[in-house]
Design goal:
- The chain is mostly helical.
- The chain has one domain (5-345): Alpha/alpha barrel (Glycosyltransferase).
- Helix content is 52%, strand content 5%.
- The protein contains 13 helices and 10 strands.
- It has helices spanning 5-9, 17-22, 45-62, 68-81, 105-121, 125-142, 148-163, 168-189, 207-219, 222-239, 267-284, 287-297, 333-345; strands at 32-33, 36-37, 43-44, 91-92, 200-201, 240-241, 244-245, 254-255, 311-312, 317-318.
Length: 364
């Protein structure tokens, strides 16, 4: 457990009230009007994949009784979203019409993350078997990913799939190929003052170093861990100010040589930071990562630039972002899942627990 129990007792309990409210017989709705589900915006594969990933982690730790119904609902959504070529649609209208031909690379990576995590963590054979069928069909799509965050999400899912013994050689080889691409990006871009993979910090930034930490669990390649920790340290330098998480705002991001945007800070970015710091603590045992993970999580509770909480204990939902003068009062799926996943990470492992399954240099 990354944090002492006494500390965890001070945090809000993990409640699924709002998540259940947003879920109907199709899947998880994308948006809410304040705390009321908003059918006008339909559903996304992104959100249903995140929700499936959450259920898999909860089933692993608490058993299937409370969570299997939602898990099967979200997995059924992914089944409906998958095209004949293995790729996934993303945007579904309330009347179950697909609004796109094919989802983005990030969408494909998130689906792979959810399916692989389900294989590795949901100790429910029927659920895992179904996830394997979908991942089988998706693997050719995963193997063509080139977008860094899509690769990061897929790496994390495939590492959990490896733990389950799923297509170990193929998944391990793909993890190493994608990790090598992230390292190539880092080498081409980073210097002493800008230790990052791109010339701009955008969204879900901490997922990139976290993915390399997952890759290290499988590969035991020291370079994976070294660059993961080096880039995470840089991100912490950018985003922590006097014990407060001050994220890169989505209203302009942070271009190299420019100014960090202060607002439209997003819960998904806080979630990524919490999970990456928990992973760093798991791998290094350094207590400062544990402390930073807790500080990052308190962003949801009001330890942020506005001093306003984003988690709403009356609904168990999470507000959609930190704007210049207020929080965004809507409580959508992405934000609520970000809170729940970050909260769960503080007391549950985020890394696969397999020993290295890759002989040195075997798949390079």
């Amino acid at each position: 457990m990354p944090l002492p129990e006494a500390t965890l007792w001070d945090l809000p309990p993990l409640r699924l009230d709002h998540l259940r409210r947003l879920t109907d017989d199709t899947g998880l709705m994308q948006h809410a009007l304040y705390c009321t589900p908003d059918p006008h915006h339909g559903y996304t594969t992104d959100d249903n994949a995140r929700a499936l990933l959450l259920m898999a982690r909860l089933i692993e730790s608490e058993g299937p009784e409370q969570y299997q119904e939602l898990a099967f609902r979200y997995l059924a959504f992914l089944r409906y979203a998958q095209r004949d070529d293995g790729a996934f649609h993303n945007f579904l209208a309330f009347d179950r019409r697909w609004l796109d031909e094919r989802g983005s690379q990030d969408c494909q990576g998130r689906a792979a993350a959810a399916l692989g995590t389900t294989l590795g963590r949901a100790l429910l054979p029927g659920l895992a078997d179904s996830a394997a069928v979908l991942l089988d069909r998706a693997m050719p799509v995963v193997e063509r990913l080139t977008a860094p965050r899509a690769e990061a999400y897929a790496i994390m899912g495939l590492c959990w799939a490896v733990q389950a013994g799923y297509q170990v050689e193929r998944c391990s080889a793909q993890v190493l190929r994608m990790a090598s691409h992230l390292i190539d990006l880092y080498r081409a871009t980073a210097d002493a003052d800008w230790r990052w993979f791109e010339n701009i910090l955008t969204y879900s930034n901490a997922s990139l170093p976290e993915a390399l930490m997952h890759a290290f669990v499988v590969s035991q390649a020291e370079e994976h861990l070294a660059i993961a920790l080096e880039s995470l340290e840089f991100l912490c330098e950018v985003c922590f100010v006097d014990g407060m998480l001050d994220l890169v705002g989505q209203n302009g991001w942070f271009p190299r040589g420019g100014k960090k945007a202060a607002f439209d800070q997003q819960p998904i970015d806080a979630q990524a930071m919490v999970e990456a710091l928990v992973a760093a603590y798991e791998l290094t045992g350094e207590e400062r990562y544990q402390k930073l993970a807790f500080e990052a999580f308190t962003w949801f509770l009001g330890n942020n630039r506005l001093g306003q909480p984003l988690y709403d204990p009356t609904t168990a939902g999470c507000f959609d972002g930190l704007q210049e003068d207020r929080v965004n009062g809507n409580q959508g799926a992405e934000s609520t899942l970000a809170f729940l996943l970050a909260r769960l990470a503080l007391e549950q492992s985020v890394l696969p627990r397999v020993p290295s399954l890759v002989a040195a240099g075997a798949y390079y």
